[in-house]
TrEMBL record:
Protein name, entry field: CBD9-like protein
Location in or out of the cell: Membrane
Signal peptide positions (record): 1-19
UniProt biased composition (Low complexity): 197-215
Cross-referenced SMART domains: B561 (SM00665), DoH (SM00664)
Species name: Mollisia scopiformis
Start-end of Polar residues biased regions: 410-419
A GO CC annotation given for this chain: membrane
Annotated keywords: Electron transport, Membrane, Signal, Transmembrane, Transmembrane helix, Transport
Biased composition (Basic and acidic residues): 392-409
Keyword Manganese on entry: no
């Protein structure tokens, strides 16, 4: 690492294009860099350069000069209609609404801009960014104010500089010390780093990992495949398999049902674990571990670990005591809550990956239908269990203890001691859990 960055510095120095710049990468792999050439710094006006980079799955990325949207000199980039380059749209902020296209800003999209390896890059020269309608910026300010924002969601694909853009999903402010951004006389300071990292990727001759792209971050070639696998496996587990396993134990009744449930749910949990592995890998590679989807995902998978434990404990105690026990309701309600959170988190994941609105709606509909079905099954099973006369639900019906003496003991205990207890259980039934009947 040390050695390669040394080589990089040497290569830059020998080309005589050492780009002095200030950079800021807020989140989501979005980065901004600003360069103020020496002549501009000394005269106070002239060309400045900036670079905007981020995942090409984003709807748009913006950078603005100013402290808030109102009166800010804003630059937005989004995929062009051909999908191989970005459209640079200079705009003027006028309050907390979509900034309006501003043709008085003298900006040029430079070489090195484009969309490749899943990254969109805009290398920009601005020739009059020291003043704009309603604002100004000292190009030597040690504490210059900038705002940034980007939007996840569908790709814009437009060449129109006044394309209609929806509100940001992430935004914030930052300051740049433009004294540190000063230097150089390149007519495209960010092209140097682009060209260098591209050629070093080319020289390495390795096809397993994509060549490093602009801004220093690169997406491994397998990223898209891993994301696809993650986005298929996790929803199948949370939206289909978990609810099916939960409904099965509510709806069906046959000997050994509990083991079908246990096996099915454990198998599904293994699917979840593997898709979590992929998720963690992606989050590390693309620095998205701080996103809600990543955090909630880890919490959900961690919380689910209690299920096999509480399930087994319920089962063991049930065999011994023949009635709901300390592990029963935790297993049922924790399971329902955590699986529901997992289903919701799938939607957050789709947002994070900048999926199409259609995709998000499709997921939402299927997830909502499955979840409602599950809740209906719970309510129906609850009603059915309440309508049955006390004592007839016969806890051990579906899973009788193997040995007959134990069965005796259980049915005795059920009839002799437990009836009052059971009554009180079903009397103030906890939520919508039917009297648990399987063990
Ligand atoms: C990751 C693993 C598991 C998950 C996510 C899970 C989840 C659930 C959920 C959500 C319910 C409530 C069904 C409803 O909505 O009404 C449930 C019920 C149940 N689970 Fe599991 N479970 C898992 C593993 C196990 C294991 C390993 C066992 C036993 C060996 C087990 C035994 C039971 C039993 C007996 C019930 C019914 C409780 C009753 O109503 O009496 N589960 N499980
Ligand atoms: C900013 O300049 C440094 C050298 O001063 C360089 O290593 C880095 O790649 C530059 N960043 C960009 C985005 O060009
Ligand atoms: C994107 O457009 C700019 C400005 O026209 C150009 O210099 C650059 O080469 C283009 N990039 C690609 C990949 O075509
Ligand atoms: C490597 O660079 C050369 C010259 O710049 C180019 O013609 C060639 O297509 C590149 N190869 C790859 C694999 O990018």
């Amino acid at each position: 690492m040390q050695f390669s960055s040394l080589l990089g510095a040497l290569a830059l120095a020998s080309c005589g294009v050492v780009a002095q710049n200030v950079t800021y990468c807020p989140s989501g792999n979005v980065c901004y860099a600003v360069n103020v050439p020496a002549t501009t710094a000394s005269s106070g006006s002239g060309d400045i350069y900036f670079q905007i980079t981020g995942p090409s799955t984003l709807s748009w990325i913006g950078l603005g000069q100013g402290t808030s949207m109102t009166g800010a000199n804003i630059f937005m980039i989004y995929a062009n209609s051909a999908g191989d380059n970005v459209t640079l749209s200079p705009r003027l902020g006028s309050g907390n609404r979509q900034p309006e296209s501003d043709t008085t800003t003298d900006v040029t999209l430079l070489g090195g801009s484009g969309i490749s390896n899943g990254v969109m890059t805009a290398n920009v020269r601005c020739s009059n960014c020291n003043t704009w309608t309603g604002g100004s910026m000292s190009l030597t300010d040690t504490n210059s104010n900038w705002i940034w924002a980007y939007k996840t969601g569908s790709v814009i694909s437009s060449d129109d500089v006044s394309a209609n853009l929806a509100q940001h999903s992430n935004y914030g402010e930052t300051t740049f010390n433009l004294q540190n951004a000063g230097g150089g006389s390149s007519s495209n300071p960010f092209l140097a780093t682009t060209a260098m990292s591209t050629s070093s990727g080319n020289n390495s001759g390795s096809s397993s990992s994509g060549s490093s792209s602009v801004g220093g971050d690169s997406m491994p070639a397998d990223y898209a495949n891993v994301r696809m696998a993650h986005a298929i496996l996790a929803p199948i587990a949370f939206v289909l398999f978990f609810p099916i396993g939960a409904m099965a134990i509510r709806l069906l009744s046959f000997p050994g049902l509990v083991w079908v449930h246990a096996g099915w749910m454990t198998f599904t949990y293994i699917i979840v674990l593997s898709s979590m592995g992929m998720g963690v890998w992606m989050a590390v590679v693309s620095k998205q571990l701080d996103q809600y989807h990543s955090i909630i995902g880890l919490v959900v998978v961690g919380c689910l670990l209690l299920q096999p434990i509480s399930g087994f404990t319920h089962h063991l105690l049930y065999k011994r005591e023949g009635r709901p026990n300390a592990a029963t309701y935790p297993h049922i309600f924790w399971g329902r809550a955590v699986i529901t959170l997992g289903i919701i988190n799938g939607g957050l994941g789709l947002q994070l990956s900048g999926n199409t609105v259609k995709g998000e709606i499709a997921y939402g509909v299927v997830a909502a239908v499955m979840w409602l079905l599950w809740m209906i099954v719970i309510v129906l099973a609850f009603i059915r269990s309440r309508n049955k006369p006390e004592g007839e639900t016969g806890e051990a019906v579906f899973e009788k203890p193997n040995d007959s003496t134990e069965r005796m003991r259980i049915s005795q205990s059920v009839h002799q001691q437990d009836s009052p207890l059971r009554l009180s259980f079903s009397g103030d039934n906890i939520g919508l859990a039917p009297k648990p009947t399987y063990g």
